[in-house]
Amino acid sequence: MSSLQNNTSPEELHPSLWRASQLARSSTRCVDTGHPTLSKQLPGGGWPTGTLVDLLLQQPGIGEMRLLRPALVAAASRRIVLLQPPHPPQALALAALGLPPSQLVWLRATRTNDALWAAEQVLRSGSCGALLFWANHVRGESLRRLHLAAQCGETLFFMMRPLAAAQDSSPAPLRLSLRPAAGGLDVGFVKRRGPQRDAPLFLPLTPTLLQRHALVDRPAPAPATARGLQPELVQ
Amino acid sequence: MLEQERVLAVSPQARAAGVAPGMRRGGVLMLMPDARLHVRSPEREAEAMNTAALALLQYTPLVTIAEESTLLIDIGASLRLFGGIRALCRRVRASLRALGYSGVLSCAPTARGAWMLARRRAGRAMRIESLTRRLDSLPASLPPPARSFAAWFEGIGCFSLGAMRRLPRPGLQRRCGRALLDMLDAAYGMAPELFEWVEAPTSFHAKIELFDRLENAEECLMGAERLVQQLTGWLCAHQLAVERITLLLEHERGRVARPPTPVDIALAEATWRDEHLVRLLRERLATLTLEAPVIALVLDASQVQPMAPPNESLFPEPGGSEEDRLRMFELLIARLGPENVLQALPQADYRPEVANSWVPVQQKVREMVRSAQMPPDVESLARPTWILAKPIALLMRNHRPFYGSPLKMASAAERIEAGWWSRTQTRDYFVAEGQDHTLYWVYRERIVGSGEEEAPRWFLHGLFG
Predict the structure, then answer these.
(1) pTM above 0.90, yes or no
(2) Which residues lie below 8 Å from residue B293, measured CB to CB, with a gap of 6+?
(3) Between the ranges A145-149, B285-289, B307-311, where is the mean pLDDT highest?
(4) Domain A47-194 is classified in which CATH homologous superfamily?
């Protein structure tokens, strides 16, 4: 009997046990990220549903929507709620990402309390596919409350917060930091159920937004004045 | 509560202070100087009975008002719908509490029997045998026709209904009249009972006068809940669902008469349940600021339609039903305002600001209209995910736009020239890349002034999410 116990590894004893060197198994359903290298690094192999996922952005507009694109497209059979985005969202661009405009809902809130309340209502109703919530300063207890509300349903819930928020504690089981990089994004793992990883993961993001003929037309992008070009103007 | 200058009913606080029924006004004021004395008003009692009857119509169409402030309802057909007698009693009690009343509930196989049990707080009797047993032990003075003969009954040693029933019927009828025998027979289930059921009015308009002047809109919610309870009863009685309700807050008439403040609630999906209406009212009242104190509330059901029971699917969908989503939107609109809950309705226009149009989610948009406005090949358009509400003028360094770092153009120009009929735009849009590899959407104004302003002006207009 004792030898049997010695042979069993902890992860076989209980699903919520894992070694520090391994990735945990996810208890909730996960949605594939669409980026195989990233999926391999996440517990459960994808974005967990019904959980608070913290994304810490250096600044808005660095490719966060392109990163989430495959998951959002999978969730687009139901509504996708954008709560308090930093700038007005452009429906055509989101349509180019594969999110039909009919499924988009843009919520604006004037006060933080209203935004938190709206997030909770959306999560509790569970009738939306994904909720993306941009917030700058959120207190710990509000985060915990949102995390609990997220567990009621199977909504994909991402919170977009500034990089400085990485210093504060958060109840989110998965926290990633995103920084722009040449041709993609650097994903840093602030917190995950698995081994600590210090080196950021580079994810190439296909710049589908760039024009296909960009390279051909390259030589004359800047206004060419007749008075001679400075060397750094020539690209 | 006073009737003919005698105390009739007292609150628990007054009882603790020593006030007892039967005292005079002076005595009460001596014991409790700050006591609130109300004179019993039969009109308001009748109004309260009507209110409660209307609210109880949601459980059964058979409601009648009986003597001595009692309501009789026939729940024989409603038991299964509401999940049994206990669940139904709980709901009835909760409805009464929401109206602000308290009551004693009894059930019995006969209406008169239930009336007698309720008058003596004798609980529930489910079968005719147990009802007979319980009724037998009730005092003989309970039926109203027997009260004038109470002394005679006491004199012959007849203290309970059971003893009264054993008296010879012809003699009892000669002495006390037919009414007493009829009532006993009805209570014991030996004679059929006939009632005139309460008929709900054809249109709904309910009003309550508040006891106090309310300064805060949120305090009105309690009163509004009472009105919604009545509305629910009325809707169930007529098999209707409500599409739009209006709550009018009537103000105190000061030096100038103020028109009542309306709180209008339009529903995407007609409903006849009270929880959702109360939640919507709560959010709306929370955002309302009152100009003057409120003294009365009026609820109007302005738009109704026939009730359509929902289609229950065999396997519930994980994402909740369409009604759930509409209900969520209504709740969000109630708090955030309709201008802050938006859906996308892109317009076929070359100017990016005009093309990116968002409309309130309540607005019905047909899918065909929306898709007709979409460009045929949406993926070929380089459009940023975030578009700045107002373009930012960029600094120029070394003849190059600068935003945090010098920007390098990463795409060819996309020329947008449109809108001569309203707001002209002649711009060349570029995708630019900063030194930290962030992509920006910038444009250059093509029409520039002469002289000093000849240099091209650059603006930042979007961010690629």
Answers:
(1) no
(2) B213, B214, B215, B251, B252
(3) A145-149
(4) P-loop containing nucleotide triphosphate hydrolases (3.40.50.300)
